[in-house]
# Entry
Amino acid sequence: MSSGPIEVAPHQVLAGLADVDRGLAAVLGGSRWSLSARDVRVALAEVTRLQAVAHAAYLVLLAESAGRDEPEHGRATGATCTWLAAQRNLSAGQLQVDLRSAQVFDAEVGELRTLGRALVCGDVSAAHTRIAVRALEQIPAGIRRARTAEIDELLTDQARRFAPPTTAKLAPPPAGHRGSRPGGPVRHRGAPAT
# Structure
């Protein structure tokens, strides 16, 4: 019988993150010269997929932390976003946008659950999800409520089929946004006129 301290295993979430960290360290520290050209592309495609999966994990943890914030006077305080912005030198405004995305992609109550599942699988990128949230917010609330499933399927299909610049045409920047102009969507340099 051991008389030493009892070791407590870390929570599965923390253990999983430690595994990811070790895996990425192996990728960064490994000898890439011995990979074939095909293997480099396989690895590149996989790391791109894992970026999306990591973004999904980030959104889930952001929402979990924000859900535990203590409200003041019945209103959300934004304590998680404020803390994380200071802790990791991030934009508090972008964290608020990401928190809204986390709510939209929530597996149980989110408006874009199918797109959220595609992000978890790594089938779409974080850029696709940001565009989809922007598109969703431009749809009037009544139509959103009445046609949630159709909107989710459309945005998911677009994200799976097209690169972010193409899907962005579904959601031009809001009026007043740098680069927007009255009278129509922004036409980026080199993009064909519509």
